[in-house]
Amino acid sequence: MVIAIKAVYVFVKPIANLSKGQCTWSHRSALFEMDALAKVNRINLVSSLSPNVFRFTQNGRRCLFIRKLSDEFIIEDLQDNDEINVIVITNCHIDTPKLSMKTLESLEILFITECRMEFLPLVENLSNLTYLDLSFNSLSYFPSDIGSLRKLKVLKLSGNRITNIPSEIVYLEFLQVLDLSHNMISHLPRKLFSLRSLIHFDCSSNTLFRLPDNISELLYLEALFLSGNVLTTLPTNFSLLKRLQRLNLSGNRFEYIPFCIFQCFSLKELLFSYNQASGFIPDNLCRLGDLEILSLAFNKFTKLPGKLSSLSKLEFFDIKGNNIGRIPEEIFSKCKNLRHVNCGSCELIEVPPSLGLCTNLRVLDLSGNMLKKLPSEGKALKNLISLFLKNNKISVLPQWVCDLEHVITINVCKNLLQDFPNGFSSVAERLRMINISYNEFEVAPSCLFSTNSKLTYFLMDHNPVLQIPPEICNLKLLTHLSISHCPYIFELPDELGGLLKLRTLRLCANSLLKLPRTMHRLENLNYLDLSDNKFSCFPIVVCYIPHLKVLLYNNCCHACTYLEPDPPGWFDRTDLIDPDASMEKLGKDYIDEVESFAAEDERPPTLEEALEFEKEAAKIPRIKHDEISNLVFKRKPHKIPRHIYCLKFLVHLSLQNNGLYFLPNVFNRFKYLKRIYLNDNNLRKIPSSIAACKTLTDIDLRNNKLSEIHGELHRLPNLKNLELDGNNFPLCLREVIKHSDLKGLCAYLDALNQNRDFILRRMCERFIGLVSQDDWAQILQRLGVSEDTLEHIEDELPGGYNFRRRVTRALEYWSRMDLSTRATNFEIQSPGALNTEALTTSAAAIVNTTATTNTTPSFEDEENLSEERSQAPAPEPSTMLVGTEAEISILQPITLTFTPLVSGPKATPARLIHVLKLLDKKELVNAMTEIVEKLHVHQI
Q1: Which of 159, 168, 188, 830 could pair with 147 in a Cys bridge, judged by C-beta atoms 3.0 to 4.6 Å apart?
Q2: In this predicted model, what pLDDT tens digit does every residue of 908-939 receive, in sequence order?
Q3: Residues 6+ apart with CB under 8 A from 583
Q4: Phi and psi dihedrals of 189, rounded to 5?
């Protein structure tokens, strides 16, 4: 089998070059350091056993690549590979200590990375091994067997859990590169520094608090990385490291720059950021005449000495985050080789005019200061590529900015700009990114919308802009556009739909009333933020953006929010009346529409059809004031259109704080949706289709008006977070939500579902005894039993003496329960109470608590009970069950010989009470409610 791997690149560098400190292995991309003559090559690979195992030859070396396999398959793949020279094993799961490589005597380079490996493979016989990388595993100790690898030149153990280094390391006399970064090492043994060949040593991100004095014995050391430790000082003989060229001491606890560093005259790179050094920057730094990179960022220095101007070779200078107040004139006038200068957050009031003499400057960062203007002369800065002026008080840019011939990035965010200088259009044509947010632009600068624009990132948030010009369509290469917090923007031009490469669009916190219909052309748009606008309804065109993955639509309804009380008359008779529904749709027909799933083959309307429907709906009100009386409040709620299921690639959906009372029951159509945020709405019901969205990992339903959790929401296979606080759940469920984790909550809900079926059975039994012959057919039809099904029951069980049996049969069809064996037994057994201790164990433990029942009378009035029993038909002997057999039959599904037609929501106690309230059957409502109250499960 031949596999063409298009994206595999092989970096081949000489091991001899390690003497120059050029070790740049990337374990994630499988970049090999092998041969001096080879360069980057794109290759086709010849496979061996599977797509995760393949072999190839590069520069005369036989290579084996293994990924995403378990250890037993790796052992099998390593067989019959005696002549292999390079092995790369990555992203596998190795948990056996018996992974042997004894027979691989020709092996020279071995990578085992990101494999969660806790044991070192048997490598003592690999006498030719020169390169070993075991980074990003779970090794808790430094493998002493490595000491037998006498030819080893490169050893990388980064990203493990190593705490100590064994004495056997002294046997690696040819070791040139040692990487122990990102471990838990608190001290270094003295024997480590007897490795005289060591050139590159990385022990960053550990817990070192001091270095041994004999570190000076590493006479050939060129690169030393010790960042991210807790060092406070260096050994006095540190200055004997005369070949040291690169030193990183960032992120430690130094209170001053150790004097011994100033005697390491070969230093070219000194990184000393994120320490606690204060006062004046020492003049002795100027003794490091070869210094090219100097970073002193985020210390507490207060003065920058002018003598540093003697560092004539300095190219990179970072003093960000120090309160130095001013920059000496001679720094810029004498350091002619400066290419990158970062003086951000230094409390600068002005910049010396000598800045304009830095002819080689590529990057200039003056962000976070108190600058009101820039030097007037700067024509020599023609090589500038990036200019960062964020968070100052600049109101006018100097004219020399228009002469920057190579600039591609400008950030002037958080200033006082109202316009750009004349001639800026020539610069704008070369820009790739510009940020003009938090300024005072009232008109979007026309110079930014040139037909030759190369802009890919454009941010103009927090400006008093009145409108977006139609020339925005000239930004053909734009991929990221942010126009947010502009309160005077009410609409966008149709030309926005011409930005065909746009991937991210932020339009939050404006005053948008609608969106251009051309937005459906944005085929590459993945991210859209419409939060905090003033839409009168959800923009239907959003549903037709074909590849949208993230949709944020929060706080877009300012007329109906969660904090407002229910309008008068709402939910008095039903909890499903839509305030925007016509009178003809109230009740069963409307409920069926809300509850109906979106079929997989359902064809959505075209955009033109949807827009026309939206236009007509806005033009003709569906409810008149004299029709609704006090039942329905006239105000329209915010809605999410059913056609949202057209966003088939949606991964993240946020609909927070929109006053939503209902959601379309279409979530079964989302195949990639992972996160949905519905908190701070008015939701009283969860769409049952959410339980069919198997990819969901995060659901937020906080601060709604839910009284129960519908469906199988808690059984979603990938669910990690379910937020339910701030709803109207019963006390027991609120306590479980508050004190239990997701596992305990799911176990509780499983038990609750079984109790709900138990309660429904008792309600059905009570209903059979109370319902009148005049009402039963109407109630069952409203529950969803079709007229044809009721006629079939009449034919099957005719006559007045079969009335109760007809009701029983109809309820069996509706509830899918066998009620015949219990139709005359009104002795109700309440399920056992749930114990909180069981909630943190397992669902089985909780369900078992419901099997223990206590016999209690359902009603106190024995005379009424006798009368109801006398009205009920006698049970058939063949179906009678007694004792435990009767209990076992409680939740047995009925086996049907006739296929009934039943529609509407799932049969639940709440559904039955809802329909009875809708039909104003007060006596039945009271009886059903009494059963619910008596049998409701309460937490101990």
Answers
A1: 168
A2: 888 888 888 888 888 899 988 888 877 764 43
A3: 623, 627, 628
A4: -70, 150
